[in-house]
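Two entries, shown back to back:
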Amino acid sequence: MLRLEGIDVHYGATQVLWSVDMHVAQGEIVAIMGPNGSGKSTVLKAAMGLKAPSGGRVRLDGREMQSAPATERPRHGMAIVLERRRLFPRMSVHENIVLGAYARPARETRGSLDWVLGLLPDLRDHLDATAGKLSGGQQQMVAIARGLMARPRVLLMDEPFLGLSPAMVRTVSAIMRTINDEGVAILFNEQNAKLSFALSHRGYLLESGRVILSGSGQEMLDHPEVKRVYLGVREEAVR
C-alpha cells in the first residue's frame, strides 16, 4: 500500500536518512523504532510530503507521490497525526476534529464525524470544550480523531505515546488496534522497543538514518541485538 524506496533526506548540507526502504501492507500496523536522532520522524515527514526527499521514491498503491504536496496526500488516502498533537488550543474540540475533513467532500463530514466518534466515544462529551484545556491524553485523542476525519487508508503517527501516562499509553494502544480493525493501516514511530513491537505486525529498527533491522513484531522482540541494546537483557541471558 505505502512504499518508501531508497529515501534520502537532507537538512541543508546534513544528510539524515540514507537509502531507507520501508513498506506498509494493507491492514498492517508497522513500527519504526530507534533512539533519539535516528530519523524516525523524518521518515514520516518524507512519506507525507512534509519534507521533500533528496533521493528515492514514495508510492501509494503503486502511484508516485513525489509531485503531490502534503495538502493533497489526504485525498489519496494518507493522513498524519503529528508529534505533540499540534492542535489549535483556542478552538473547540469539534472545530479541531472537523478540520481533518478538509480534503473530503463537505457532504461526507457528518458521516465521517459519526464514524470517528464511534471509534473514540470519550470525545463526545468534550466537543464544545476548548482544546487547549484538555489533558495531554485527551488532546492526543483529538489529534487522532482529526487525522481519521480524512478517512485514510494509511495513518502515520509521529510519537503517539509521547508525554502520556502509562494508563493513557494503554488507551492509545487500544485505540490504534481498533482503528486497524477498521481497515486502516498504521505506520508509527516510538523509542520503546517492547511497546512498539508488541503492538505491531512488523517493525523496522532505525539507527543514524539507516534501517539496520526489520522483521515481524515478534522477530524484532526476539532478536538478540534488540534484547541487548533496547530491552536491557544481559548478553548471557540473550545467549
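entry 2 starts here
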Amino acid sequence: MKGKIIFLAAGATGYVLGARAGRERYDQIASAVGRLWGNPKVQSRVGDLEDKAGDLAKQAGSLAQEKVGAAAGSVAGSVKDKFSGSGDSSTSSSSSSSDDSSDAPLGEQHHTRMPTD
C-alpha cells in the first residue's frame, strides 16, 4: 500500500513539473535525445547489437529445430512401438480388459470412468 502511494505521488509530481516546464522544455529534451540517437558512435553500437541479436536468434532457432526434430522422432518411434506391439494385436486386445482401446481409431480412444465404491 505504501509503495502504491509513493508511486502515485511521484507520478503526480512528475505531471505537475512537466506541465510547468511546458512544450519548450519537451522540445529541448526531444532534441537532445534526437542528437544522441543520431550520434555515429551510438548508431555503430546499435548496429553491433542488432547483428549479435540476429546471430543469437539464428542459433536459438537452429537449436530449437534440432530439439523439436529429435522429440518428434522419439514420439513417432514410441507411437509405432505402441501400435505395432508384438505383432499380433488381436490376441492382446481380446485378452485384456476393456480399458485397452488400441484397436479403436484415434478419435475414439477416451474413456469416462465412474468411481465405484
